[in-house]
TrEMBL record:
Pfam families: FAM92 (PF06730)
Protein name: CBY1 interacting BAR domain containing 1
PANTHER family associated with the record: CBY1-INTERACTING BAR DOMAIN-CONTAINING PROTEIN 1, CBY1-INTERACTING BAR DOMAIN-CONTAINING PROTEIN HOMOLOG
Superkingdom of the organism of origin: Eukaryota
Source species: Rhinopithecus bieti
GO cellular component, as recorded: ciliary basal body; ciliary transition zone
Membrane-crossing segments per the record: none
Gene: CIBAR1
One GO-annotated biological process of the protein: cilium assembly
Length: 126
């Protein structure tokens, strides 16, 4: 029974090591893809800026009430795009960072438990 428990711990440790290794292996690729995504969203942001500028240009040709409404809309639209982009990138980065940290901590705990168990088994057999 003790042997089965030890085998289970070893299997769990190996599984955690594999998981951490996979995250570390793919993290570089994820960073490159996120960088490409940021560049693409930057182009989207540029289009949003062009739209805001065009709305402001149109607003300049209209009556005072419509001008004020269009300018307020353009301002709020620009704020919304800024906020949306910042939240999206923040969430994706935090998710990746937290997952790696959790996996490393789980691995350290499993290795420590495994070493402690192996040490007790050696003392028991001696």
């Amino acid at each position: 029974m003790m042997r089965r428990t030890l085998e289970n711990r070893n299997a769990q440790t190996k599984q955690l090591q594999t998981a951490v290794s996979n995250v570390e292996k793919h993290f570089g690729e994820l960073c490159q893809i996120f960088a490409a995504y940021v560049r693409k969203t930057a182009r989207l942001r540029d289009k949003a800026d062009l739209l805001v500028n065009e709305i402001n240009a149109y607003a300049a040709t209209e009556t005072p009430h419509l001008k004020l409404g269009l300018m307020n809309f353009a301002d709020e639209f620009a704020k919304l795009q800024d906020y949306r982009q910042a939240e999206n990138l923040k969430w994706k980065f935090q998710f990746s960072k937290n997952r790696i940290s959790i996996k490393k901590i789980e691995l350290i705990i499993a290795i420590h438990a495994n070493l402690k168990s192996n040490h007790k088994n050696v003392e028991f057999l001696s």
